[in-house]
Amino acid sequence: MTWTAPEVTRPSGDTAADERVLLPSLLNWHRSTFLRKLAGLTGEQLAQASVPPSNLTLLGLIRHLAKVERFWFRLRYAGQDIGPLYDPALGKDHDFEALDADQAEKAYDILLEEIRLADEAAAGGSLDDTFDLGDSPFSLRMLYIHMIGEYARHNGHADLIRERVDGHTGA
Q1: 8 A C-beta contact, residue 165 and residue 45
Q2: Are 139 and 128 a contacting pair, CB within 8 Å?
Q3: What is the mean pLDDT of the chain?
Q4: Secondary structure (DSSP) of 114-161
Q5: Mean of the pLDDT values across residues 141-158?
Q6: CB 127 within 8 A of CB 19
Q7: 61-118 pLDDT, tens digit each
Q8: How far is CA 118 from CA 63, 91, 108, in A?
Q9: Report field, pTM of the whole predicted structure over 0.85
Q10: Separation between Cα atoms, residue 111 and residue 126, nearest integer Å
Q11: Would you say 161 and 51 are in contact if contact means Cβ atoms under 8 Å apart?
Q12: Does residue 4 sit in helix, strand or coil?
């Protein structure tokens, strides 16, 4: 049986909550929006580059967002002693380039796990917590804002790719 990305219910959130509730809720809304754009597609469809001349694919975005979740929340914010998700020796864009359609389900599951672990890493933190980002401190607040922007940008990419793959728009 061919694997297809599952349907996802997008959570509603309190749009008047304080920012410690609002920022993670908005990030989760964007995460689920991304996952909804994948629903019903097979691994082959997820690996299809459909907006020439770009080689961007939904599978590449899945892999990239998993890498980003791990990098920002677990490696940077929480300082966990874990390696990168993909071998840096394979190139900085390996997440976008390794597109084995047979590995789509695994990549999807890795993204879900990285989201879960990212949420776990930030769960007890204060938005005022900071971590070193080289030449200046970076707060958990800014991390949420950065990740909301990351997903919003890639949700736009996913809209275009999905429409070209099967004509589906919205979500």
Answers
A1: yes
A2: yes
A3: 94
A4: HHHHHHHHHTT--TT-EEE-SSSEEEHHHHHHHHHHHHHHHHHHHHHH
A5: 97
A6: yes
A7: 999 999 999 999 999 999 999 999 998 899 888 888 889 999 999 999 999 999 999 9
A8: 15, 24, 15
A9: yes
A10: 24
A11: yes
A12: strand
Question: Is the pLDDT reported for residue 171 higher than 90?
Answer: no
Q: In the chain, which ranges are continuous DSSP H helix? A: 19-38, 43-46, 58-69, 94-97, 104-122, 140-166
Tokens found for residue 166: 């099967």
d(CA 150, CA 78): 19
- pLDDT score, position 119: 98
Q: What is the DSSP letter of 74?
A: I
Only one residue has tokens 């770009």, namely 54
Say how many CA atoms lie within 13 Å of 150 toward its Cβ: 19
Q: Bridge partners of 131?
A: 138
- Greater model confidence, 12 or 13: 12
Q: Give Rg (Cα) of the chain.
A: 16
